[in-house]
Specification:
This protein is α/β, with parallel strands linked by helices. The chain has two domains: 158 residues, HAD superfamily/HAD-like (Rossmann fold); 65 residues, DNA polymerase, domain 1 (Orthogonal Bundle). 43% of the residues lie in helices and 12% in strands. It has ten helices and six strands. The two termini are 27 Å apart.
Length: 234
Amino acid sequence: MNETVTNKETLETQPAFPFKGVIFDMDGTLIESTEADYLAWKRLFAEHNQELSFEEYFPLIGMKSAVVVETRLLLDGEKAKEALTKKMDYFSEIVSGSGIKTVPFATILLQQLKEHNVKLALATSSRRPKMKMVLQLTELLPFFDEIVTGDEVNNSKPAPDIFLKAAEKLYLSSHDCLVIEDAANGVKAAKNAGMKCVAITTTHSADLLQEADLVIDSFEELDFEKLAEMLKKN
């Protein structure tokens, strides 16, 4: 199925969107970066004589990198900063070699939301240098009115901090915001923030995302009209 952008004629017939803002996670939700992120962490862990299986990596998704370094590698101070720099270097090296893609049909949904004047924010646990590199490579940066990164908040997902900060930057209340996530910790964070949440099964299976208000397998099934209708029913 070809990706198409909603035209002006269809805008008038589409239902009103029940939210003023949508807050997107980045890794796994908009960007197919989970494998590259895992390989970067695996390499860093190996340097500290620790193995990291993909199953062990799963709970780390959505967690601030600084917290991973502190709690799993037991590093702090300058050693922690050095480890974070290395992890970013490894990720950049992997992405430079294999490239990085957006999740299929994610760009179409972003375009449709912008056409309907819905405010958009990005809330990623990634650090700002990684966010800037990834969004520039995928040309997604212009879509977002506001961006919050993991180094701007005190507590990682499933704490609600990052989504509350994003809503604050958009000048919206929690009940006016919808979160779109791919990870269980992100869904929990959205619910802890008092926000509705749509979860996509790009990273976790549907049974691990059941706290979400709506679970989808692909953005292809979630154009603006369908999203508005589905959310009104939930």
